[in-house]
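[audit] Reproducing an earlier prediction to check determinism. Same input, same settings, fresh worker. If the tokens differ from the archived copy the diff job will pick it up downstream; this log only records the rerun itself.
[audit] input (398 residues):
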Amino acid sequence: MKKKWVSTLGILGLCTCLTLPVYAAEMVSKPETHHHENAISGFVNYSELQKTLRQIEEKSKGLVQVEVAGKSHNGLDIYTATVGTGDKVILVQSEIHGNEKTGTVALLNLLQNLSTNSKQAQEIREELTLVFMPMMNPDASEADKRRNSMTWDEVLDKFPQLTGATPSWNYLDRGISQSYNYGENPGFDVNRDFNPNLNYVPEAQDFPGASNKPGWFITPESQTARDVYKSLKDEYGNVDVFVDLHHQGMYYVEGTADKVTLSLSAQFVPDPNTSEGAKYAEYAENYRYDYSRQLNVAAYNELQSYGNSKFTNISLYSQGLDLPGTALGSYALNGSGTVLFEVRGQTQMMGHKEKGQLVKSVERGLTGIIEAVADGSIETLNPEDYDNIPLTSNKPSN
């Protein structure tokens, strides 16, 4: 068995005992109650994130660089943490949806271990530049909800050319039963606010849009993510790998009664080199679907290597998607190999033990990608093996 450089304790073992730092000016008040009954105290909140990032940066003695990439709608800092000096760039983001928190803990654990003096960590740092955005949507994270807190009127203040346009389809301003009351607290699904044209400026004629159309970069969170991506492309020539960490509902591995631990995907828009993807023809030269499939296979193989365990119930997320308004869709068209992680359940559905298991799954899947890209073995993987990964089903098989 190959030596593992990832600790499965790390920040996960610390997050329940961290004390709040003195960053009161940057904090927002949290609701007295959440929209569900289960506690989320086992995850990392915004204040704990700030403190932990600073601790890791200081302990690394220059190996980790923490920077403020931008501000959320409510004025909270959106951070990047960079480790490594290699030519190959891996960008990973978590919590673009604020109630999808396992990825944040996993990234902090990985960051801590990538900054050690172990031989493998050093080799990875020499080959890769890893950029983590561990809490993309801090406003939503603090409120434990999916969307940000921006209103349509606030969009119009920033983009007066949109006056008279119908609010975008991903804007929610109505209450939802047994969920967060967006009637009183409206907001946008930030992960539908991306556009393959990284320099796009919002135009009224493109609203309200639809799920299979590009977004607009009207939210500060998507603008920040876009600017990080663009700056990396400018500096390195390309973002080789982009991984987006999410949660999903309860699903099953097709043909079994096994609950899915984690779903993967490499496909978010139709291939621009095919008739189905002809509308994206201007991006055809950069599209790297085979490389995306290889990255997904690397994550799948790593998780499967643990044998019959909680980590082996891996499936493919829905295929045949056309979602150019997602970060994954937009970045795939711009030349990045892309990977979606969707772990089982939302924060309100997890007990403490399950949280730990799911965090480990994310860490180990990411480890497979990082190691394979760093040592070049990613190029030896057969992209066709991606199509052998079992699909996700919404019903168990008897």
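[audit] rerun output stored. Observation attached for the diff report: The chain is about 30% helix and 15% strand.
[audit] end
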